[in-house]
């Protein structure tokens, strides 16, 4: 997917803990363009509706008609069409491909479940037995969220969520890389692949 020269639209996606948001922010800073995170748009709605547990909120809306998903994906599409933006969404890279929306490049990041759990746990200041319990909860939530997302995106858009290579220009496993190594490798792939 190529875009008119001069404007950059990068789309990052990946399951929780894959590093997609961290790397999207790094590219936003590198190119000095806005970072739009779909997760923030969902969180704002949860806050507006005074819902404290974000995981529960996502599960509730996934069982409904998913009008919020459609609204947020429309917002992402509008940003993509304007250009000069880094979009961070679990599904928008696939939607861009399906809808013929021009992007500089779409990047899907993944990591082994154990690594993703460890990354989530690293953001929390818990020790001892609480840490063990949190690890179990995080693992359970990540698995559940993946199943919900997979079913939801298939139902809403016919997207095969578990097969990102069908939709994304670059698909990478970040399990054995830190954020800087991941950023450097993606930047190299973007340049070598003449996306930039």
TrEMBL record:
SUPFAM superfamilies: P-loop containing nucleoside triphosphate hydrolases. It holds the Pfam family AAA_17. It comes from the Bacteria. InterPro entries: P-loop_NTPase. This is AAA family ATPase.
